[in-house]
Write a structure and sequence with these properties.
The complex is a heterodimer of chains A (349) and B (433). Chain A has 17 helices and 1 strand. With 349 residues, chain A is mostly helical. The chains are: A mainly alpha (349), B mainly alpha (433).
């Protein structure tokens, strides 16, 4: 059996991370549906162009198709309820409409996909849509959509339990948490506030964890979970940040996710008891999946061999940058500070 | 603010400061030198002991049955409040007393064990965090605070099982422990959410008023299930012998003394909710009896000291569950104290067992290793005795059954979904960046 082909990507300096970050920021900051739709279109174009620039033998048809369809209920006020719900599920990457995200992952650079994941375009779309058309969906459609999101969260958690690549596992956990955010955002009364609190946690922690994994991949060629990596003693700083941030991410007391999940449970329990049960199960699975990544990256017996020489030959820096570490520490610290003072994230009394 | 409230707040700060300092130092990549880490743990243990004694005296002098201390809620939004309520009564004093007595002994024992040991800073952080978590759990006045301590105890336990990071088996076993913990923690969280949703309050002192609620049976059942993993009761017990991968001192504090008895503490605290339901009491007693028989047989067939002790502890916990089902709660607390004392000593001595067999006057020279189950005195045919022995050696296939019928189908479902993704999107190619 022949070894899989290694695809080398061309550099495309003009349309890289900064452009994606600007487009995603504009999408979140858009004050009304029209600028939002413009930013969303720019995001779709960015995705297409980035895949084109990286010269992969495949195009992200799924991703671009889904992104083009998703904002339909926002643009068309008379959109039927079932179509609006489907488009929102598509935009949010709910299972079984999540394949576009996987398609985007395979087409983008790792850092770009991480950016797309933590910037949560699906949540931005739902928020904008709820703001513009609060009564477009009837109660039964909202319940169905809410149930779909929570089921998606369980499915993403389940996928995180069986995936073998570190970044994909953390990506699945982020997607699972995003689905919970979406379910919460559809909740009654203070649903959006509760969802926003979890969104803060997921975005910060997702960014920190994915950055660490991408950095470890650059430094140590870690691509899959294995007890041969054993990087805890090799990269003690990244290890400490990873473990502290990871536990806060999955809702252990001390981090903001603990209170955010508590608020979401409180919002959902009356309206959707079954969804609440699934929600609780998801938080459990996510913790197990995170710990699996931790063990498969930092614990075990250190390998020796050509992999450790490869990066020396490449000439890339051998230690994580100081500014990068400071940023990661700042993000992790923010999760705990907000965990001790949750009202800062929830906002107001 | 009453004297009791000041004392409780002071005790919490004293318990929380050392793990906070040690944790921040570790996170910043500048762990404290060993002397300072030890000093932090020693100070924490001594001050906790002193404050525990003062709290007991203050409570005895106050002459009240129970006193609640309400701290300002960190989360107050849209009619929902997360209120930390602490409770000082004889149950909390009893468990807190146990924590305050056992913890200094563990700290003292750990000092030579971890002298110049790689990862000592991590050990001291986890042990001090555990002390804080146990402190919070003992004094919890509502299920919210208890859940915080409960989760942190589980986290420390899992991280300490994998303490020797270069041993892959330690990691695998800690993952197993986490799976059991999280399964039961989900039940506790479910009970908590249900309590908040349907009951007027989640405070232990008001549970008497809530026992008439129609959903009290379900909440009681969830609480009973939630207690099973921490106390290693059937069917959530197969993690316990795997947890022995950790250091002896952490095994003593977790699986001999304090963490393993959190199940009975939770059941005592929530007793007003479930004691009214014979079905739950029957289930509690049934779990206790079956665990006691199972663990007693398996423990006798184990070849090493620490796992034998783990199964012995499980047996006693089974007996405690029966006591709780019978309503003998004070007796169960007494049993907790006696059992924790004995097991702490046994676990701490487990590393020097051979020397004990030879020279320790407390153990005696007449001790010899036994490989028999102890069923020889009963009139069971030899053929069945052998089968029983074989079954005990294989843990009655509990591990295998749970893997075959629960974990494997669950993982297979997600593997199928993952492979479906690949089929739709075509298998992924390796990428250079």
């Amino acid at each position: 059996m022949s070894a899989p082909a290694i695809v080398t990507r061309r550099r495309a300096p003009h349309l890289g991370m900064p452009t994606g970050a600007i487009v995603l920021a504009l999408m979140w900051l858009a004050p009304s549906p029209t600028p939002f739709l413009c930013a969303w279109s720019a995001l779709t174009a960015w995705l297409w162009l980035r895949a084109d620039a990286t010269a992969l033998p495949r195009r992200p048809y799924f991703a671009v198709g889904a992104l083009s369809m998703a904002p339909l209920p926002l643009a068309w006020e008379g959109c039927p309820g079932w179509l609006a719900a489907t488009c929102l599920a598509l935009g949010a990457g709910a299972v079984p409409f999540h394949l576009w995200l996987e398609d985007a992952r395979r087409s983008l650079r790792r850092t770009e996909f991480a950016l797309l994941l933590v910037a949560q375009p699906g949540v931005a779309l739902l928020h904008r849509w709820l703001d513009a058309h609060p009564h477009q969906l009837d109660a039964s459609s909202v319940n169905a959509l809410q149930f779909l999101f929570v089921t998606s969260a369980v499915a993403h958690s389940g996928l995180a339990l069986v995936r073998e690549q570190q970044e994909r596992v953390i990506g699945s956990i982020v997607q699972s948490q995003s689905a919970l955010i979406l379910a919460g955002a559809l909740g009654e009364e203070h649903g959006w506030v509760a969802a926003r609190t979890l969104l803060v946690s997921v975005s910060i922690a997702g960014a920190v964890l994915l950055t660490i994994l991408i950095e470890l991949r650059r430094l140590h060629r870690t691509s899959r979970l294995s007890h041969r990596h054993a990087l805890a003693d090799v990269e003690p700083n990244l290890h400490a940040v990873f473990v502290a941030c990871g536990w806060a991410f999955v809702g252990v007391p001390g981090g903001i996710a603990f209170f955010a999940e508590d608020l979401l449970f409180h919002e959902l329990v009356h309206a959707a008891p079954l969804a609440t049960i699934l929600f609780i199960a998801t938080t459990g699975f996510n913790a197990i999946a995170f710990y699996r990544v931790y063990l498969g990256t930092f614990c075990g017996t250190r390998r020796s061999g050509p992999a450790s020489f490869a990066r020396e030959a490449e000439g890339s820096p051998r230690v994580p940058g100081r500014w990068l570490l400071a940023g990661l520490l700042l993000g992790t610290g923010a999760l705990y500070v907000l965990g001790f003072l949750p009202m800062l994230a929830v906002g107001g009394h | 603010m009453s004297l009791l409230a000041i004392l409780v707040a002071l005790a919490l700060i004293v318990a929380a400061l050392p793990p906070l300092v040690l944790g921040v130092a570790l996170l910043l990549g500048r762990p404290l030198v060993e002397r300072n880490s030890v000093l932090a743990a020693e100070l924490q243990s001594i001050l906790m002991l002193a404050l525990g004694l003062t709290l007991t005296l203050a409570h005895a002098m106050s002459g009240r049955g129970a006193a609640e201390v309400r701290l300002p809620p960190p989360l107050d939004f849209g009619g929902y409040q997360w209120v930390p309520v602490l409770l000082v009564d004889w149950t909390s004093i009893a468990y807190l007393g146990l924590v305050c007595v056992v913890y200094p002994a563990i700290v003292r024992f750990s000092i030579p064990s971890f002298h110049r040991e790689p990862g000592a800073a991590r050990y001291w952080f986890l042990v001090t965090l555990l002390a804080f978590a146990l402190f919070a759990t003992s004094l919890a006045g509502n299920l919210d605070v208890l859940f915080v301590g409960w989760e942190l105890v589980g986290l420390c336990s899992v991280q300490l099982i994998a303490f020797f990071r270069s041993n892959p088996r330690g990691g695998e076993n800690s993952l197993r422990a986490l799976v059991y913990y999280r399964t039961c923690d989900a039940a506790l969280l479910g009970a908590l959410v249900w309590l908040h949703g349907s009951f007027p309050t989640a405070e232990f002192l008001r549970f008497h008023e809530d026992s008439g609620q129609s959903s009290a049976l379900a909440v009681g059942a969830l609480v009973l299930f939630a207690s099973l993993a921490k106390s290693a009761q059937l069917p959530m017990s197969p993690w316990l012998h795997r947890a022995m991968e950790g250091p002896a001192a952490s095994s003593a504090i977790f699986y001999g003394a304090l963490s393993i008895h959190l199940g009975p503490l939770l059941l005592i605290r929530t007793a007003p909710l479930w004691m009214a339901f014979p079905a739950i009491r029957l289930a509690c007693a049934g779990i206790g009896v079956s665990t006691a028989v199972y663990a007693s047989l398996v423990g006798r067939a184990r070849p090493d000291a620490k796992t034998s002790l783990a199964y012995a502890a499980m047996t006693q916990l089974g007996v405690m569950y029966v006591e709780l089902a019978l309503g003998w709660h004070e007796f169960a607390l007494l049993h907790v104290w006696a059992h924790a004392g004995l097991r702490t000593w046994q676990f701490l001595r487990s590393s020097s067992l051979i020397q004990d067999f030879q020279s320790n006057p407390l153990v005696g020279a007449q001790v010899s290793a036994r490989f028999r189950l102890g069923v020889e005195t009963l009139s069971i045919p030899v053929r069945w005795q052998r089968r029983l022995h074989l079954a005990a050696l294989r843990l009655f296939w509990l591990d295998a059954l749970q893997w075959q019928f629960v974990a494997r189908p669950w993982l297979a479902l997600w593997r199928r979904l993952a492979s479906l993704e690949d089929r739709v999107l075509a298998p992924e190619r390796r990428r250079s960046r």
